[in-house]
Amino acid sequence: MPWRLDLRQLRSRLRDEQGQSLVEFAITFSILIGFVFGFIEVCLMFYTYCMISECAREGTRYAAVHGTTCQTAALASCTASTSDINTYVAHLGYPNLANGTMIVSTTFPDGSEAPGNHVKVAVKYAFPITLAFVPSNTWTMSTSSTVTILL
């Protein structure tokens, strides 16, 4: 009968390894893709941290040149308040900040906005994590910058 296999043919078919490489590839590829996407997410986190650090530096620079004695060429006051500085930093619009939540706070550690005193701009950012199987949805980053007020 042609549909019957003898014992030798049955054993050789059971030992056949043609599908083994496909299974190994599937397992290895899924692990590799997980590492690649995890690496991309970590790189985006570092990029975002650098951007919020730059926002804090830009905010302190803005505050340093817009102190209590700041005047325009027409001798009008260009003094920036705490809310002006916070709004400036929040609307810098640096690209690709992952649509997270940014909280900006400006303080004057020396007590006033007078030239020679310090200004501190602190930025907190909630970075949304988009990886599957990660229990936390956000990673909170914070940075600050302190500068002496010039004008």
Description:
The protein is an alpha+beta fold. The protein has one domain (18-148). The chain has 3 helices and 3 strands; from the N terminus they run αααβββ. It has helices at 7-14, 20-65, 82-90, and strands spanning 101-107, 118-128, 138-148. The protein has a 3-stranded antiparallel beta sheet. It is rod-shaped and about 105 Å long.
Strand composition percent: 15-25%
> Structurally, how many domains make up the residues?
1
Counting copies of identical and different chains, the oligomeric state is: single chain
Mean pLDDT: 85
The level of helicity is 40-55%
Q: Give helix and strand order, one letter per element, not per position.
A: HHHEEE
The CA-CA distance between the termini, in Å, is 102 Å
- Major sheet size, sense and barrel closure: 3 strands, antiparallel
Dominant shape: rod-shaped
Radius of gyration: 29 Å
Secondary structure layout plus pairing:
Layout (H helix, E strand, L loop, with lengths): L6 H8 L5 H46 L16 H9 L10 E7 L10 E11 L9 E11 L3
Antiparallel strand pairs: 1-2, 2-3
